[in-house]
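Hey, why these numbers?
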Amino acid sequence: MSTPAFTVRAASAGDSHSLELLARLNGRSWPLPGRTLLAERDDVPVAAIRLTSGTVLADPSNTTVDIVNALRFTRYRIMRQGGQTGAARSLLSLTRGLTVSA
């Protein structure tokens, strides 16, 4: 059985509620600060990673290792290209509409 496709994109200000929910599911009191990538399956946020630290928040009931690995790899590519998160700001556009299937 194959894993359904998911999308990785840059989180926006409109995603603050989703990030807060992911933080609560992970026992954190506040969502990740700073630039964040968000993974969605069927338009439902299932995981996030902070670009600067690599900290991951994931919905334990709806996330696979493949999704977390895709977030980490996308972060790696962005950081490798930009060398720092300030330069990565423009590189975040590369993640718009990135659909990944395992």
